[in-house]
Amino acid sequence: LWFKESTAKNLRTRDFLSPTTVLGTLFADGQVPPAVISKVTALHGSGVLPMAAGEVTREGLRVRVDRAAAFRAVLAGGAADYLKPSRQNQGWVVINCPALHAKPDTPTPEMLTLGHLRSVLLSDHVGALLRKQGFAVSYCPTLPDNSKMVTFLQALGIDWPAAPEQDTDRGRRTSGGGGGSGAEEGEMEGALRVNLKRAFQEEGLLGYDPSIGTCTVHRDAVSHLAQLDLAAGDCKAARVTAVHVTSCQDEFRQQQMAVLWRASGAAHAQRHLVCGPVKTPGSQLSATEYLQLRRGQMKEASEMKYGDQVEGQTWDHIIRVMTSATRFELLSTVHSSPVTLDVQREGSVSIKGPRGGVFVMYNCARLHTLFDSYERGVENGVYPEIPEGSQLDFSALKEEGEWLLLFNYLIPFSELLDQSGQALDCEGGGARVNIKAEQMCRFLVSLSKDFSSYYNRVHVLGEPLPHLFNQMFCRLFLLRALRELYHSALDTLNLPPIRQL
Fold first, then answer.
1. Locations of Gly residues compositional bias (predicted)?
2. Rounded to an integer, what distance in angstroms lies between the CA atom of residue 355 and that of residue 404?
């Protein structure tokens, strides 16, 4: 059993640790034979970091990585393999967001509660995560393309599927599968009562509420089933999974819809991603009011820092993206847990403080500014072009902060991407699925804190002296990979990087 270190304090002495309690079960008195230590440090192969030394201490067997070799292995090759999942998945996932379904009409932005907004943002994020892992992803429902909701979602950076209104109306009027006749009867009489108990028992569905029994099917439920049929009908894969992303208040109703869809003939696997409530003590805000408040705070904070510069299309774009980045407030908490938001105006959003998405975007912009400065230096003849990685001596990267950025962020990123697909693959866990979508936001915030600490301490673009160029180039290699890491991680949140601030 090995523990990977993550704290800056412990990384000064070790990178991996096998604790004494483990060693005591393997070797008499915990005495590790020298031959074993030699074999550990001699490990090599694909995905194995080059080891430098191992020693037994009171804490256990600690091992350090050959850092110069690790920097070379990761950075000289471009780091591309570390910025994508270790394997590509197959299959098709339908992300179903009940908050966007007609009830009975298409919802408007003003009708969205913060709980609904959380489920919409989570739907978008989970879909982007799964697509990055190789899954084909489609979204349900399809919205009318000229609706206010489509415009609202586009302002958030969410490209939700839309179609001409007559096509979405047709989907509401018809239901595929075995539920078609029942849907027509329900529409004629206003509602249809269906006993789901038999279907529930025959299917042996795990994790569903055992009290699911008679369900009243109104026109909006027929529309919901029709949209699911249309979305699943477009899937060109043998394996299709529907993930229903819903609020905890609507979970029971969505379980009824899932059983009803199964009873109508849909054989696809179905999982439920359930969001906890969103609380705003002392205030009641809709989703649009919340975003308007955050936009005003973002504009005010920008004006306080940059003054009269904050005007024109460029700044409108920056403030719009930074406002959209406040989604970290809703996505950084475990999806099943409640979120409490401070929406008081005096709790203004800080550009530089470690306040989630705004802080992340600010530090991403700092990286772009750094490389813009370097490129201007090259144009003006101050610095030479960056050479090939094979020409650099990466032993110049001696700062603990540099190793921390590589070891805790660049190297394990592909493993972080793998986790959501693995969660979807787990069978027998019941109706709910735990994709741990909060981990990407937390990863980015933690990365930004460590990068900010390093950047404030180290002067990357130093004096243009030849004997200093090797270290500068090595640092630029590391920070260039870090910039690509930001882009890849922000892509799973459909947030474009800010290139200047």
1. 174-183
2. 21
Q: To which H or E segment does residue 330 belong?
A: helix 328-331
Q: In this structure, are strands 51-56 and 60-65 parallel, antiparallel, or unpaired? A: antiparallel
| The pLDDT of residue 166 | 60
Tens of pLDDT along 436-449? 889 999 999 999 99
Model pLDDT, residue 427: 56
Side-chain-facing half-sphere of 82: CA atoms under 13 Å: 28
Phi, psi for 426 (deg, rounded to 5): -65, 125
pTM of the full predicted structure?
0.89
Q: Please give the helix or strand (H or E) that residue 94 lies within, else none.
A: strand 92-96
Compute the C-alpha angle 310/314/319, nearest 5°.
Answer: 65
The domain tally of the chain equals 1
Asked if 197 and 260 count as a contact pair (C-beta separation under 8 A), the reply is: no
Among the listed residues 407, 402, 364, 480, the one whose alpha carbon sits nearest the alpha carbon of residue 80 = 480
pLDDT digits (tens, 9 = 90+) for 76-106: 877 888 898 888 888 899 999 999 998 877 8
**Residue 370 one-letter amino acid:** L
Phi, psi at residue 100, to the nearest 5°? Answer: -100, 0
Tell me, what DSSP letter sits at residue 385?
P
From CA 393, how far away is CA 235, in angstroms rounded? 50
Which residues are CB-neighbours of 427 under 8 A, at least 6 positions away? none
State both tokens at 268: 């696809």
- What pLDDT does residue 309 have? 82
* Best-predicted range by mean pLDDT (152-161, 291-300, 455-464, 473-482): 473-482
If DSSP states are collapsed to H, E and C, what string results for 163-189? ECHHHHHHHHHCCCHHHHHHHHHHHHH
Pairing of strands 339-340, 278-279: parallel
Cα separation, 358 vs 389, in Å, equals: 33
Contact predicate 450/404, CB 8 Å: yes
Report residue 495 as tokens. 């947030």
Q: What pairs with residue 245 in β-bridges? A: 273
83 within domain boundaries: no
How many CB atoms are closer than 10 A to CB 448? 22
Q: Is residue 58 part of a domain?
A: yes
Instruction: Please report whether residue 401 resides in a domain.
Output: no
Domain range for 56 is 3-65
> Hey, how many other C-beta atoms are within 10 angstroms of the C-beta on 265?
12
Mean pLDDT of all residues in 340-354: 58
